[in-house]
Amino acid sequence: MQDIQLDARARTLLRTLIESYIREGQPVGSRTLARTSGLNVSPATIRNVMADLEGMGLVHAPHASAGRIPTAAGYRLFVDALLEIRVPNREQIEAIESRFSPGASTQDLLDTAGSVLSSVTRLAGMVRLPRNRQVALSQIEFLRLSERRVLAILVIDGKEVQNRVLELERDYPQPELQNMANYLNAHLAGQSLHIVRGQLLAEMRSVRRDLDAMMLAAIDLGERAIGEDEPDDVLVAGETQLLGYDELADIHRLRQLLEAFHEKREILAILDQCIRADRVQIFIGRESGLEWFEHCSVVTAPYSVDGEIVGVLGVVGPTRMSYDRVIPIVDITARLLGAALNSRGEPPKTR
Asked: Could you give the CA distance from residue 38 to residue 9 in angstroms, rounded to a whole number?
């Protein structure tokens, strides 16, 4: 796209066409461009420029239409070189900021970010949950529920409690379970879950003969309680907003989109591409790598805690979205979410 060179007139006409199409949703003809572009040129001259832009793959004429609409390549050039961002005013920013309640849990803050993105942009909002690698294990306890069923209670960072029911191959009386918990707490408490998991796996693989049966059982039980790394999850909000866009109204296309939101794997694949970025990322059409996103654009931004990127949020909508408004909203929401998580004074935790 960087190789395409447009003169000032062609740039103005392309920008005017795309802005008009985003606003009205209808193919744009040469007479409309002559009236709205601010250029002192005839419709015939504009038709010649449109033919050139079509030859470059930036616009095309839909079937049975005298006007033209932008292609994905046209949108890309528009976003990269022609877009003028509409920065929200202080009142709009404060309205978004007020949605992040002081003292809210991490989960509530993440839910809020998704709903804010959807309601403000009228697109589908998504938030990639923070990774738990920095979360520390404060305490672990085991409670016998019934024969071969144990409740593992994990206290995270001294505040959050996670409960997991374990199905075991043998029965353990409560005193044995308490001894196992004491052993794990003495050796592992205060360390991050990532480190704890690694140590437990290392212990299980070792052939140290000084480990008695209780220690081995404790290590096995602890590893099962903490478990393998769970796939990073994603919250999706307002996917029904997409039902209101004509370009996504095709039932087959819409079904594929809703299935992608439900399964989440494809959404995560897109967000995973953005986790290392320190700025807003924009995927237009098939740039996302997903065929059924051909008529969609994805705008994402990372959010940080203590200066480290821990997750990504964004929106999905039609390629005919108001990029000038959506991009700053996504960026600001990411910054406000990071600030809200930072104000908690503790690492982010999810359910």
From this structure: 10
